[in-house]
Amino acid sequence: MAIDIKAPMPGIIMEILVDEGYTVRRDDELLILEAMKMENPIRSPEDGVVKTILVRKKDFVDTDQIIMSLE
Amino acid sequence: MAFEKQLEELRQKKERALMMGGPEKIKKQHDAGKYTARERIDKLLDGGSFDEIGMLSHSDMPGMAHKSPADGKVGGYGLINGRPVGVLAADFTVLGATSSRVAGRKEHDIRSTADRHGFPVIYLGEAGGARMPDIMGSAGLASYGGGGRDTFLQLMSRVRRTPLVTAILGLCYGEPTWMACLADFVVMVKGTAMGVSGPRILSIALGEEITDEELGGWELHAKVTGMTDRTAENEDECFKIIRDYLDYMPSHNEEVPPAKEVPEGSGENMSKILDIIPEKRNRAYDMNRVIECIVDRESLFPIKPLFGQTAITSLARVDGKVVGIVANQPRVNSGAMDTDGIEKVISFLCLCDSFNIPLIFLEDIPGFLVGCAAERKRVGAHVMNFMNALGLVTVPKITIIMRKAYGMAFWNMCGSGSGADSIVAWPTAEMSFVDPVIAANVVYGATAAATPEEKEERIAKMAEGTDPYGAAGLHYIQDVIDPRETRNHIIKVLRRTRDFSKTKGIGEHKLANWPTKF
User: Fold this and answer.
1) N or C: which end of chain B has fewer CB within 10 A?
2) Between B402 and B279, residue with greater pLDDT
3) Would you state the pLDDT for residue B437?
4) Euclidean distance between the first and final Cα of chain A, in Å?
5) Mean pLDDT of chain B
6) Are B362 and B287 in contact (CB under 8 A)?
7) What is the mean pLDDT of residues B156-184?
8) What pLDDT is recorded for position B447?
9) Domain of A48?
10) Which pLDDT does position B125 carry in this prediction?
11) pLDDT average per 10 residues of sequence, chain A (71 residues)
12) What pLDDT, on a 0 to 100 scale, did the predictor assign at position B446?
């Protein structure tokens, strides 16, 4: 089952901490979203494998935009 | 047997009342996945504890007596977790649970008895709206005021002396909405709706076409209006949430909430706090994880968790006794509190002050969310309303400055001079008027020619003295503590300011008069 990771708020992708194919565990940091001058770690909601990453470093993302999907 | 005929008549009348709106209407209710009013009461209360009043009441309209068992509102008393409560349940199978004069008397009876003797009332709402034609015409309309000088006010206004809980269990337009807006705690079941007027009226009167869900569904009220405190997947969960909530509440404002045994393992995770708080000053984290370490295990009971998420308001227990947590949430908008967050905190201050629940402020706030949109939402007025409410709180207040404490928000979160009984900081605290970058800009000007080195130097100058030792050294705060000591610190402060205080933890309830909704 695929899980979409969405941006919780508008911001800029500061760092992507995983690659496609990585195995992640619940609560692992997936990427850092800079918003309101704050670095916000986006964590994995479940255990899984990173299927696709839809953003690149320095991309601007909007609220609810899908940034990554897990399997 | 003596009086056989009379007893048989009584039995028949009660049997008729128990049939409610009849098998067909009851089936419809069940087919819609809903319980009847009587089933709801049974599921809410401790088993077999329901003690009904007004079972024989009925409509006062000519020819309507036999069509209106209990006049559409089942009411009485019972127990929840062994403590008395009053309960009123709208019966949708009887004339659509419309509001009426006779049931109004029953409601008044239960509400005023609960107030006089000191126990909560739970209103199980469905449908609503005044019954027609009963209320039509001048005499009809005015009769709904109850006939006394202030009989209407006694139902439609309140000073918080005992908890009032409202459940939204159907498409509610009318009385349940008013009761929700007067209540201390509102639970809405998914799939229901709450509003002043329903889609049908809106379609006729204004030509507006809208669904119940869009007009007043759970998402609107949980996330946008904040008019519901919690959402339930179904009715069973709703009743469990209400029972759990009342475990955190005193029966009335002249006692403290019941204490519980401290669950094993509480406080064990205090050292984990150091791993949750990031060392980088501009790295966000989830404040909930910090709170979970501090309070008794599994004791968090969030209020309005989906609304105004820049702030967290939650009931919890520390050392077995109930406390109210007000915390900033760095994960949302960097913790900059918006007007929704402010309103949520104010309503929580009212709840805690009204029911003798000490407040713990966990401060990590870069300031209030400002800007054009915020000004249009009267952010200034909200900030001062917040201060006014804080000034009226008479329960113990404990402030922990965890990380950021900037500007006016420092005082709103019960900073120095804001009435805290105890105010301490963590060594990680960063306290100042504004962010050093902004300060350098204001003091030296943004356009002034300066090399990057000079700019850095100016920012560094403005960042001087933001550690908590400046304030602690001059006794503006009382101490700087190891974050791992926070739970013990709170327990010690509450022993002297609540348990062994001459007030015995009973406040003055000045906020009991504050509006119940915002």
Assistant:
1) N
2) B402
3) 80
4) 6
5) 95
6) yes
7) 97
8) 61
9) 3-70
10) 98
11) 88 93 92 84 92 94 92 91
12) 66
Question: Which residues have CB under 8 Å from B416's CB, separation 6+?
Answer: B410, B423, B471, B476, B477
Query: How far apart are the CA of A10 and the nearest CA of chain B, in angstroms?
Result: 10
> How many contacts does A have with B, using Cβ atoms within 8 A?
28
Does domain B270-429+467-513 match CATH 3.90.226.10? Answer: yes
Window B:406-445, CB contacts with A under 8 Å: 435
Question: How many domains are contained in chain A?
Answer: 1
What pLDDT, on a 0 to 100 scale, did the predictor assign at position B443? 86
* CA-based radius of gyration for chain B: 26
C-beta of residue B228 within 8 angstroms of C-beta of residue B186: yes
Asked if A35 and B334 come within 8 Å (Cβ–Cβ), the reply is yes
CB burial of B320-335 (b: ≥16 within 10 Å; e: otherwise) equals ebbbbbbbbbbbbbbb
B282 contacts A39? CB cut-off 8 A: yes
Whether chain A has a CB inside 8 Å of the CB on B279: the answer is no
CATH architecture for segment(s) B4-247: Alpha-Beta Complex (3.90)
Helix (H, G, I), strand (E, B) or coil at B151: helix
Distance from CA of A48 to the nearest CA of B (A): 22
Task: Locate the chain A residue with the closest alpha carbon to B280.
Answer: A39
Residues of A within 8 A of B284 (CB-CB) are 38-41
Q: Is A1 on the interface with B (CB under 8 A)?
A: no
Position B452 confidence tier, pLDDT thresholds 50, 70, 90: confident
| Confidence label for B175 from pLDDT (cuts 50, 70 and 90) | very high
DSSP B362: E
Using CB atoms, pick whichever of A8, A9, A38 lies closest to residue B330: A38
